[in-house]
Amino acid sequence: MKPGRLKQILLLTDGCSNHGEDPIAVAALARNQGVTVNVIGVLDDRQNGRPQGLEEVESIAEAGGGVSQIVYQKSLSQTVQMVTRQAMNQTIQGFVNKELTEILGKDQTIEELPPEQRGEVVEVVEELGESCDLDVLVLVDTSASMHHKLPTVKEALFDLSLSLNARSGSNQFSVYAFPDPKKTIKKMVDWTPELGEIHGIFSKLNSGGYTPTGPALKEALYTFAGKPLFERLRDGEDPYEETGF
Amino acid sequence: MKKRAFNLTPGSQVIGKWNGHKYMIIKELGFGACGTVFLCRTLQGDTYALKMGEDSSRMMLEVNMLKKFGKVQGVKLGPSFVDVDDWVDQKGGAHPFYVMEYIDGISLSSFIKGKTNEWIGICAIQLLTDLEKLHECGYVFGDLKTDNLLVSSSRIRWIDVGGVTASGRAIKEYTEFYDRGYWGMGMRRSEPTYDLFAVTMIMMEMAYPAKFEKGSSPLKTLESKLASSSQLKPYRQFIQSCWKGRYKSAQAMKAGLTDILLKRQEGSSRLQKRRDGRRGEEMELAALSIFAAAVFGSAVVSFWL
Ligand SMILES: Nc1ncnc2c1ncn2[C@@H]1O[C@H](COP(=O)(O)OP(=O)(O)OP(=O)(O)O)[C@@H](O)[C@H]1O
Predict the structure, then answer these.
(1) Which residues of chain B are within 8 Å of residue A123 when distances are taken between CB atoms?
(2) I need a labelling partner for B30 at 20 to 30 A (CA). Which of B40, B96, B233, B282 fits?
(3) pTM
């Protein structure tokens, strides 16, 4: 098995979508296209209890085949890297399970193997998690209530690249913000292996009172498809092909 | 945190689906992000720790590590491995579990409470001794923190080997306070120096049990916390040397610490000998206690003031 390239969208938000198409449907679509959607709901450190509308966070990630977490600002860094890692493992496991079914017959998953073999399979999953290539498109909700959380977001993104770049597989990150009046989402950082030099990325932002999470996700998905233009030429790869190994 | 998907109370019996071994639950010992640990007894009357969780992959990785490090060169690094299996509950749901040695100990923080500050050094030496062995095997502990340690008969033992990572890979699990990446002191890659930094943070924690955050300039925060602790005074230079990257291996760092602890004890070669010959845990414990007694009762006392 040769590790392939995993594709993820990481959505950071603090509220419920209230504009445009259903983000859960878009996430399901993304999953179909081989792009995993992870969602982190960012709470205010001073906030008490769970605000309304954050159930959507879980539903979007579930539909997108990814992982979700609702956290306070101060645990954001650790959560961002954990969620990304977990989702990678989940994707790889899903793939390994598919292979197992092909080899061993219907419904044979890792969980159903005897412990001995299970032990060997998880080592393979670990190995792939270390060596596969990864693309993460970070989609940041920059609506008014998120503004004062953006410095923490920036720090968490730097921290994410610190964690992932210690792997032997290569990483590409890009950062988009929404809402943007013209293009729905706004490119803040183009594909790059490092998120170290992202000073002032969130300095010039417009924010309306609306949160078009669905349209933003869809736009992100298009961006993903368009991303490997040169890569597509290089590998002759269909951008919408499911992640394979 | 997710709600636990199984209900095990004292007296419940867990029977393995594959191996058929039976365990009687005695009580719950604790729970973490990925499972609950119980004290249990076999039909033969042996007591063990049994961990039950939901994430079977993660549980398996822990088992793989326990199998590997239950015993390395005659030295126990983690709890020894006993059994791995699935338990099927009344409703037909399968829950992965594994059984390991029960470590009857107390947390490092309760152990250190009320003890003199040379114990900070002694605990660190013990950690470094085990790390040296682990590093020799080509692995790094990763998520080294007080939560993953127990003190049993004055000896530090590791209980959670879930973060152990082969050298050269990315650290897969960490806790910010002990993570050099968080403090801006290096990569999150598994290499021996990653664990060495965590050892200094465990020493810091012994002086600051409530821990502290990095603030706007992490290095300054660390330096000032180190400078303002009287308990850490004897170790100040040593810890700084580690932060400056002077120690490349657990062995070198242990030597540095040994020098501090043995200062002015001319002619004492006990620890030196111990390092060369492998005589097992008892010898080490004996050496450490004799040494501690010496520090306590002699003129060296003045050094600690
Ligand atoms: N072998 C053991 N002997 C005695 N007590 C144990 C043993 N293993 C675990 N425990 C107890 O159970 C608690 C939880 O165990 P452990 O840390 O392994 O859980 P976890 O789910 O891996 O937690 P996390 O991953 O969040 O650190 C420990 O804090 C400890 O008190």
Answers:
(1) 61, 64
(2) B282
(3) 0.85
